[in-house]
Design a protein that fits this description.
Layout: H1 18-31, H2 40-44, H3 49-59, H4 71-77, H5 93-108, H6 129-142, H7 151-155, H8 160-170, H9 174-177, H10 180-190, H11 194-199, H12 205-220, H13 241-254, H14 263-267, H15 272-282, H16 286-293
Length: 294
């Protein structure tokens, strides 16, 4: 909430679509049942948060007081500026990276170990404007000591690394950012090494196929018995990029023993069979897949 300003546009600045508007307006009227005469069609035509406040205040008979309302929050927000010089010393880029990856993992379904700082929010992870707002909101909630974050500036950033650098800059911790990516990426490379050798034997094509079909049935509503490995994710099943992220996240969660799965490589695969083969390859059973095809 501290990132929101009354001058913001519901759609352009916050990515709030018509369905989300209905939910917000419904919650507003539930919170203030004493205010009568609110017309949802009139509300739908308003663009900024300030216009909505003025409209609802007008229905409550407090139109005169509305112009002075925006000034109050502006004064109230100013005091947090004081702690800024005191706290940044305890904030470093590695902490911000860890928070960002955890938040994105939670909001998208991707395991945090699959995420890399070079990834593009939209192109690689399928994160839309609404999901961005949720992620940025969670980041500011996790680091309330960092002041001066501008949601509009955040919205223009594309990669996770750019977001980390921006937030670290606001915390006065720009210097460590350059060294941080290598520190974060190295554990991700080191951790998987021992796993495949020990677990490979327990992973079979049938197991991966069953998991994939079960997850797709759960995420799409299709009965699993209707699904076939030759089906195209998008053309046959209508699975968009966001739903793909959820499915791939659920797959890696179901098989944590399989390491090295790259979401960018997964996103390029089209059929269910290609996904099964890719995951089996990462499990060290490529030869079994090839033999199966023959």
């Amino acid at each position: 909430s501290e990132m929101l300003e009354l001058g913001m546009d519901m759609e352009a600045d916050l990515g709030i679509d018509s369905i989300k508007r209905v939910e917000i307006f419904g919650a507003m009227t539930s919170a203030h049942p004493e205010i009568q005469g609110i017309n949802p069609q009139e509300l739908a035509e308003l663009r900024t948060l300030n216009q909505i406040v003025q409209y609802i205040a007008g229905k409550a008979g407090t139109t005169v007081a509305t112009p002075s309302q925006p000034a109050a929050p502006a004064v109230a927000v100013a005091p947090p500026v004081a702690p800024v010089p005191v706290v940044p010393s305890g904030v470093d880029s590695s902490m911000i990276e860890k928070t960002l990856l955890a938040v994105i993992a939670e909001k998208t379904g991707y395991p945090s170990e699959m995420l890399e700082l070079g990834m593009d929010m939209e192109a690689d992870l399928g994160i839309d404007s609404i999901k961005r707002v949720e992620i940025f909101g969670a980041m500011t909630s996790a680091h309330p000591e960092i002041q001066g974050i501008n949601p509009q500036e955040l919205a223009e950033l594309r990669t996770l690394n750019q977001i980390v650098q921006y937030i670290a800059g606001k915390a006065g911790a720009i210097a460590p950012v350059a060294a941080a990516p290598s520190a974060v990426i190295q554990p991700a490379v080191a951790t998987p090494t021992p796993a495949p050798a020990a677990v490979t034997s327990s992973v079979s094509a049938a197991m991966i196929e069953k998991t994939l079909l079960t997850i797709i049935a759960e995420k799409t509503g299709y009965p699993s018995e209707m699904l076939e490995l030759g089906m195209d994710m998008e053309a046959d099943l209508g699975i968009d990029s966001i739903k793909r992220v959820e499915i791939f996240g659920a797959m890696t969660a179901a098989h944590p023993e399989i390491q090295g799965i790259n979401p960018q490589e997964l996103a390029e695969l089209r059929t269910l069979q290609q996904i099964v083969q890719y995951i089996l390859g990462k499990a060290g059973t490529v030869s079994e897949v090839a033999a199966g095809k023959k």
